[in-house]
Amino acid sequence: MPTGKGKAPDVFRYHYAIVSRIPNSFKDSSLKQKEPAKPIDLEKARQQHEEYVETLRKLGIDVLELPLDERHPDCVFVEDTAVVINGTALICRPGASSRLGEVAVIRQTLRKELGLKIVEVDNDKATIDGGDVLWTGKEIVVGLSGRTNQEGAQAIAKAFPEYATCMVRVEGALHLKSLMSMAGPELIAVSRSPAAQKVLKRVQEQVTYSYMILTVEEEEAANMLYANGMRVHLPDTTIPKSFPIIENKLDFQNRYAQDISELQKADGDLTSMSILIQKVKHPKNFSSGVSDEDLGDFPVVTL
Amino acid sequence: MADDSEKIPDSPGKEPADLDTTQQSVDQEEEKPKDQTPPPAEPSPKKEKAKKEKVKKEKEKSPKKAPTTRSSKMVACRVLLLDGTDQEIEVEKRAKGQVLFDKVCEAANLIEKDYFGISYRDATDTRYWLALDKKISKQMRSGPWVFAFEVKFYPPDPSQLTEDLTRYHLCLQVRNDILSGKLPCSFVTHALLGSYTVQSELGDYDPDEQGVKYIQDFRFAPNQTNELLEKIADLHKTHKGQTPAEAEMHFLENSKKLAMYGVDLHQARDSELVDITLGVCASGLLVYREKLRINRFAWPKILKLSYKRSNFYVKIRPGEFEQFENTIGFKCANHRLAKRLWKTCVEHHTFFRLKEPEPPNARMPLTFPGFGSRFRYSGRTQHQTRQAAALIDRPEPRFERAASKRLTTRSMDESEPYNTSENPDQSAIGYGHPDRANARTPSLAEDEAGQGGRLRPGEEARAAAQEDERMQTPDSNLPQYKLPPGSADTKKEYYVLTTKDLAHQQGVNLSQDGVAYYKRGDSIPPTTPKAMGEDLDDEDAKIKYGYDSRYGPGYENQDTLEMRRKGGQGEGDDDDDRYDPSTEHLEKKRILITTTTTTSPAHGTSATNSSSSGSSRSSSENSIQLDVASNNLVEGVDDLHAQQDSITTESYVTAEMYTETTTTTAAGEGAGKMAFFHGAGGPGGESQEDHHGYKKTTTTVVMTTGDDSSMPPTVPTERVKYDPNAEHTTTSTTDVPLVKTQSRTVTYSSSGDGGRDLLPGELVSSQSHASRSQTVETTTYKTESDGVVETTIQRKITITSEGEELDHDKMLAEAIANVTSEYLPQDRTVQKIEIKTDTEEVGAD
Fold first, then answer.
1. Which chain B residues are closer than 8 Å to A303 by Cβ?
2. FERM domain spans which residues (chain B) (predicted)?
3. Residue-wise pLDDT tens digits, B746-791
4. A92-106, B34-48, B507-521, B829-843: the lowest-pLDDT one
5. Are residues B177 and B298 in the same domain?
6. What are the pLDDT digits (tens) for B338-381?
7. Cα separation, B562 vs B543, whole angstroms
């Protein structure tokens, strides 16, 4: 009897990333939840961005750098413009109207350069920031934040019908992924902050599959980037309390600390600056980390 | 009476009382396995009459049935197979569904057939599953006998199927699901799955093929494009060398991970009438709003499933920090759809979650005539079918794979009808649809509830079945399906099941209805009777209806019900509705079904024994009720199961009859019960009713000892009567061999409360006679109060089985018939029916 069960594909295996360079307008015109205490140092921000790109390359990712676009001060945060899962790219409708124009170049790149199947949001009322879409490898959690609404969540569910999609309300943060992110397969990093814990509880109520939780201290420490078996996280200068936790709990060799302090002033985080893309030419399976154990072949009970 | 079962959303509180009955009757008829039919027991002459009318009606109409009949005996069935072909099968007109199913499976050469089923569609194109244990003719309301052979239970892991043939059929089903839109996929996944389909049907890619012509006749996706075909051809090249069976395995390994794989969708509305979709699958119940999943209840999270009219209820196990269960209500478009949803849940739960279907004994109390649908899944569970499949020793059967081409010709014209009802986008269907299903409902409501004798077309058969079955139903209730506890807390839990007229939740004082409460996490060992009492002392139980959700409207905890249990129980009700079994006005009746588990110490018997008799006496002095005092249970052990636990089951039925309408029943209930009942007194009377409950009850300990049973070991148990006011002084110890006792009490009472205590009554006569498994006790009292003399006759029938096989349902039905009809003089009415089941599992130690 053929088993048909190969090794489960690594859903966090990424081949390409799209990033966007920082325009001059980023310094003054980028959207911010709070004005930072110190103004953004544009040069330093660009330097950090370059380092970030280098780090992605160290992970074995081909990085496509888009030229800066002065009309869109926030264009560096490409994550919000598209959600890419299983060879399908949903072009978002960012919740901030100033950012709606950012998607055009992204759409073109995803289609022409990467040959992905493009799906558009067909509801004018829908808003989606990619930063609210947490792809766990098995299912999708959409944060209902100031930037993403229910219509947007519906659009995501429709674009990726293979996956269970649920939604959680997000308060006290810009995006869902400002509060939590995937730090590994079945591993969600989340901060101890009340806002994050509140949202985590909702997530745990809604999700289908079970996940381990890595609890960190600082809120921003919870956003890390996991790809190709490696993690990118913030340095100890930024997250002094969480850094030892991460050092202790995560594999030493497969970690990179990346400082993005200038970008954080405009609410940037590690995941927000790239769109990660898996590109398998001839897939044997669609991209899903769902295992046989997950599929409810649970023990039977006797009455 | 028009459109009753459609009405609920608008006027839930104004339902005519008889609608209840209607639905109930239908349920019983439709869902009751034929072979277990207890003989009819007639509660009243009135009912009998109604039934005769029905029979007559049926006879008049019968010629219209089964238009496809060829001869008088045989009927041609058209069965649409998974590969898109039709099969014509002749079955006897009176054949059960199983006959047809077996013939189809045989033709398909399928052995692992438990995953499959035969479906039919009603006028609204809603799919129903043919019940295999019932006659086809009773399920086909009208129209030709057209069926479809389909996968009913989608195996979560198709690789565990034994035969490729079975997997092939599952593949065909999944392909149909994809085409119909039931199983949505993105382009990328359509391409991948399509490529496996091509590999399995055409074999390796032929390099001589130009373009996509070779697959253009296949149907892969609802809206397939040339781009998709190109992608499929591209991927097809990479599957070189895969056998058809391997390609199908790959196909299924991917399909099984799709979010909607095997999810049976049902349209409903939440408590705020927002459209939602309920999905039933192997792992539990899913709730969607459009495409988003807004909630998920895994089976272990669900305590109980029930439906009432067009409402479907899910009682949720409380979370770690919650004290009470939530009951969440959903509204279906009509009663039939609510029942269909409920049945689907029951079947899925049983099939995937249980080792074996619920044994008849375990469900007996819940399926007591009049306590809702007795439907249970009776086929094999997945566990059983896997065990059976392991024994298959034939060589892999050969079969042809040629379905996709046929799918093409069949195209969408045939698969489309299959979309409609299942597709969430088609949710409008069924709602206010002015067609037959709805139009019929009123008449159904009328004749079955009101006994008007008019049958809806196509319902004759049902009525006939009902005939045989339990027309005597004194009450209707929520068809219930209680789920087994989650594995971890099995030992720690009490379930208190209370049925209630949830349909009245809107705008109706919920506290009128029965109340469920549930306490959990008590540190008290649940095995001490005292703990039970303490549990009970927990005064207020709340039930939340509606759906607690954070998203938008529709999910508020609409009603919070506070259970009024001051003084513990037996509290009088203000809506005093006299019970009349013949008319079955049930709306205001309360039924309480309790399930408690106690373990009583087997030692200390002599000490408690004396107090037992004393208490018993006082009990009979203070209340009319006898069942505690006079009951002598024999707890035996079945040798056959001496190694394991054995079960002794006892049921007893007590009916009290009164000559006067102004009497009430004392609520002396079974010992050790958390139960109490809400009587429903007559609206006019009960002026002299007091609402004391049975506060006077002192702790009553009934020692039940195994005596004349020759089967060792006999273990005495004690039963403690709960008294909310008295200090419990039960001298229970826990360090002795324990007997696990399961008691179930079902009480039906029409009197105003359980509080009519202090009616010592003058004993007029008392007699009892016993047979092997049954004891009948008749006690007559005379009481005088306020110048009114009332005579109370209490008949108690005790059915005891000790290990041997007894048809409890049947005996129970007979017993009820016995107490309610045979011995019921014209001028008397049944005041209360109480059913208790005590199941004892005697541990090996």
1. 354, 358-359, 362, 484
2. 75-356
3. 444 444 443 343 344 566 666 666 665 666 666 666 666 555 666 6
4. B507-521
5. no
6. 999 999 999 999 999 888 887 655 544 444 444 455 677 878 88
7. 7
Count of domains for chain A: 1
Binary contact (A161, B550; C-beta < 8 A): no
- Are residue B251 and residue B269 in the same domain, yes or no? no
For residue B549, give the nearest of B329, B294, B316 by alpha carbon.
B294
* Radius of gyration over every alpha carbon of chain B, rounded to an integer in angstroms: 29
Interval A276-299: pLDDT, tens: 999 988 999 999 999 888 886 566
Pick the residue from chain B with its C-alpha nearest to A169. Answer: B550
Distance from CA of A139 to the nearest CA of B (A): 9
- A202 to chain B, any CB pair closer than 8 A? The answer is yes
- Asked if residue A276 is part of any domain, the answer here is yes
- B256, B278, B304: which is the final residue of a domain? B256
Most confident among A56-60, B412-416, B729-733, B793-797 (mean pLDDT): A56-60
Same domain? For B281 and B237 the reply is: no
At residue B328, what are phi and psi to the nearest 5 degrees? -110, 130
Q: Specify the pLDDT at position A48.
A: 97
Q: Coil, strand or helix: which one is B331?
A: strand
In angstroms, the separation between the Cα of residue A282 and the nearest Cα of chain B is 6
CB B664 within 8 A of CB B755: yes
- Same structural domain, B97 and B239: yes
Residue B90 placed within a domain: yes
Same domain, B248 and B307: no
B residues 206-235 lying closer than 8 A (beta carbon) to A: 234-235
**Amino acid residing at B132:** L
CB A166 within 8 A of CB A207: yes
Q: Which domain holds residue B352?
A: 264-359+376-390
CB–CB contact A2 B383 (8 Å): no
User: What CATH code is carried by the domain that includes residue A152?
Assistant: 3.75.10.10
User: Where is A210: in which H helix or E strand?
Assistant: none
Q: Which residue has the tokens 């696990």?
A: B740
- Bridge partners of residue B153, in order along the sequence: none
pLDDT of residue A27: 93
Does the beta-carbon distance from B291 to A283 stay under 8 Å? Answer: no
| Main-chain dihedrals φ then ψ at residue B409, nearest 5 degrees | -65, -35
Give the distance from residue A84's alpha carbon to the nearest chain B alpha carbon, in angstroms.
12
